[in-house]
Design goal:
The structure holds two protein chains of two kinds. By secondary structure, chain A is mainly alpha-helical. Chain A has one domain. Chain A is built from eight helices and no strands. Chain A is elongated. By secondary structure, chain B is an all-alpha fold. Among the domains of chain B are: 42 residues, no CATH class; 133 residues, Methane Monooxygenase Hydroxylase, Chain G, domain 1, CATH 1.20.58. Chain B has eleven helices and no strands. Classes of the chains: A mainly alpha, B mainly alpha. The interface between A and B is large, with 60 and 55 residues.
């Protein structure tokens, strides 16, 4: 009994050790890192610019507008990926777009709506930001070819973005 | 074969009177061996003819009674152990066999779960870019930051990300790509960190809080500049200008932050 138990224990330990020998999935080779950097070069520059805008803006409407522009940058990149028929990239960018809208733009708009008087000029500006955000989102999602939109991972992202559209309005 | 060998073989026969042909050839041609063989055959014949006296009729019964009496009650069983049984009874052999089985178990398990030659290589084509994801996260953090000092902290981290990426790519990216990265770093430091530090609302932070914030940012810039300097020493010539831009921008930003703090 002791022999059986110890043999199984050693076996499990060795199996765990062997499993740990698999290369880490997150690690990128230098060539792969460079390939991705080249693919995202313009997008990265735009996102850094938008980040600086977000760092500078302090008024609620200005901040909402800066965040909308960040989402728009991702939406445009998503459309370009769709044009290139790159499903992986569409899913990747769709995920980023969904995150920025869900955790950035929607809470920002909600807060601005609470803080801004409905009859004020800022409320009009805020409404314009909302309309633009919905328009941007529609433009990014409705233009996807059916072949891409039917893929399960992309369909899932589109479903989430559709839900967020209602929250922006 | 000499005579000694022949005579030994004759002795080894079950019945020396029945000579095999090879021996018979020699015996017929050799007077010494022939005489020796005749003697052996004669002894064999005489032995067979010796009279054996008959045993008493009750001798067998008496012997059996003697054997089953008080002397022998049971016959102990002698353990007949095969070689394999004796082999496995050695403790060291069992230990080694257990280890060997464990190794085979582990290797077999690994072979089952490892990606085969036809399976997708995750490292070959990852589905997402970790650096892009990090920049998106920084933008999101900037969107979620409620106060100017929180936004400054995020901008400091963004500058660090850009510096690290430039260092990481310095040996393989072309000069233009590296210049892009150093340009982004400059924008974040000058238009983001320094500019926003200047515009910090007067009463949003105490003097101590402001000092801690700007010192924290200075330290981030100092680290980014040092690392860029170190990377420049190990990078090819075409990467030097971009890395030097990063280290100079970092030092310049640090100086400006100190000036803001002293003002």
């Amino acid at each position: 009994m002791l022999r059986l138990g110890s043999t199984m224990l050693i076996g499990l330990a060795l199996a765990a050790w062997a499993g740990a020998q698999a290369p880490p999935r997150a690690a990128l080779s230098a060539a792969e890192q460079l390939r991705l950097h080249r693919a995202n070069r313009l997008l990265l520059a735009d996102l850094v610019d938008r980040g600086i805008d977000l760092g500078q803006a302090s008024h609620p409407v200005d901040r909402a507008e800066a965040c909308r522009k960040t989402a728009r940058v991702l939406g445009v990149a998503l459309l370009q990926a769709a044009d290139a028929n790159d499903a992986d990239r569409v899913a990747e960018l769709g995920g980023h777009l969904e995150m920025v809208i869900r955790d950035g733009l929607v809470p920002m708009l909600d807060r601005a709506k609470r803080d801004i008087h409905p009859q004020s000029p800022d409320a009009v500006r805020l409404k314009a930001v909302q309309d633009s955000a919905v328009s941007d989102l529609d433009g990014a999602t409705s233009a996807l070819p059916a072949k891409l939109a039917e893929q399960p991972n992309i369909r899932e992202v589109l479903g989430k973005l559709g839900g967020l559209r209602d929250k922006i309005k | 074969m000499n005579c000694q060998t022949i005579q030994n073989r004759v002795l080894a026969l079950p019945d020396p009177r029945l000579l095999p042909d090879p021996l018979r050839e020699h015996v017929n041609a050799c007077p010494g061996c022939l005489a020796w063989w005749k003697q052996a055959a004669r002894i064999e014949r005489i032995l067979a003819e010796l009279p054996v006296p008959p045993a008493p009729a009750d001798k067998k019964t008496a012997l059996l009674q003697e054997l089953s009496g008080p002397v022998i009650h049971t016959v102990p069983a002698i353990e007949r152990r095969s070689f394999a049984t004796r082999f496995w009874s050695v403790p060291a052999v069992r230990t080694m066999a257990g280890l060997a089985a464990a190794v085979l178990f582990a290797v077999g398990g690994w072979l089952m779960i490892r990606p085969g030659p036809g399976s997708p290589n995750i490292q070959a084509k990852p589905s997402s870019d970790p650096f892009l994801e990090r920049i998106v996260q920084r933008d999101l953090a900037l969107a979620q930051a409620r106060t100017a000092d929180q936004r400054l902290d995020v901008l400091g981290s963004l500058a660090g990300d850009l510096s690290t990426e430039a260092q990481s790519l310095s040996k393989i990216a072309n000069p233009e790509e590296l210049r892009d990265l150093s340009g982004m770093f400059q924008k974040v430091v000058n238009d983001g960190i320094v500019e926003q530090a200047r515009k910090l609302p007067e009463h949003s932070l105490t003097q101590t809080q402001k000092k801690e914030l700007l010192n924290r940012l200075s330290q981030k810039l100092l680290d980014a500049g040092r690392q860029a300097d170190e990377a420049a020493r190990e990078s090819p010539p075409h990467a030097q200008p971009a890395l030097k831009t990063i280290s100079e921008t970092a030092r310049d930003g640090q100086t400006k932050l100190k000036a803001i703090l002293g003002a």
